[in-house]
Give the backbone structure.
Amino acid sequence: MKQLPDLSFWKLWNISFGFFGVQIAYALQSANISRIFATLGADPHNLSYFWILPPLMGIIIQPIIGALSDKTWTRFGRRIPYLFVGAAVAVLVMCMLPNAGSFGLTVAGAMVFGLISLMFLDTSINVAMQPFKMMVGDMVNEKQKTTAYSIQSFLCNAGSLVGYLFPIIFTWMGIRNEAAKGVVPDSVIYSFYIGAAILIACVIYTVAKVKEMPPEVYNEYHALKDDVKEDEKSSNMIKLLANAPKAFWTIGLVQFFCWAAFMYMWTYTNGAIASSCWGTTDVKSAAYQDAGNWVGVLFAVQAIGSVVWAAVIPWLSKMTSRKFAYSLSLVLGGIGFISVMLFADKYLLFISYFLIGFAWAAMLAMPFTLLTNALQGYGHMGSYLGLFNGTICVPQIVAALVGGLLLSMVGGSQVMMLVLAGVLLIIGAACVFVIKDKKS
């Protein structure tokens, strides 16, 4: 089997650059969904249920995209057609979702419109996001995968930084951060509009710059084990799961605790910060909307922490081991979550969210590095990566389903839900050492 050649930094960069735009869309969704639905009239104890749709769509769509793209060979590429179509749909939906309260609908009607828009938005983001991970698996050799996924992590967090800051930037520019009851403020609506424009521009750049390998060249670099050669054209999901390497499941165990933790961050940060720093739980108040803007700032601090730590992870992995770097990142993120209960000053929360960014950087890079190395020789790279998305989606669905119950158990304190997120991350850090790392 021929070895994939080393790629220049800029080729690695171009493979993932469109991820910058996709992540702006994802950041706008993750930072503003609870705010949007709370503004429309949702009860805090029901907020987690609105978060079921995104991972549910992910667990359905990503394996399908992975399996289909494994079999797709066109003049435009193998993964890129899905990337472009997903981005185009995302752009349309981003212009609709924040206007859910602006069409004169009843509260129930606005909720339904918002839910349908959210379903299509997350579906299209998933369609656009998955090809980037697959292209790294297709085109990058084992030696450069940590670097490639770290670049992807950097672009992901840079996009997050931009998306998170848009609402407060537009507020500073004089765009209204308040609106009539049940209507989303213009600062949020315009953020989605600009994010949509950047998304399509970044995806067009990647489409123009990246040329995927044709089938005959791909086969030269991706020799399969004898027991899967005859089955490469088949992608029976149950059979693939039965034959998955052990690393698929052990990494998935870590993923369960990590993604449940971040589900609670996305769901409850807005309410937690509004109550602890602004002293309000009134979603109709100007203070609540100010807290919503500050959540974007805190998530931006998290993204900065992720960018910084993404540069450290490759060095730390070489000096110690991938598993140690992974576990340490999660522990530091867990400490960040737990520290939220100590700070009532909105600026001190920068410390908490900067540390949380360390865990996020590891979650974006390490699982895919470990998994794609373990999958060498198994075939069906796209299908396996699509199935692996279940280890991201299932924990979020479980966390969303029990979120309201857990919130009641902690006396309705959304701050304590973030403390629980920290505990979950530390448990995930302990589980890292169960993973068997296949060295290059």
In short: The first helix runs from residue 9 to 40.
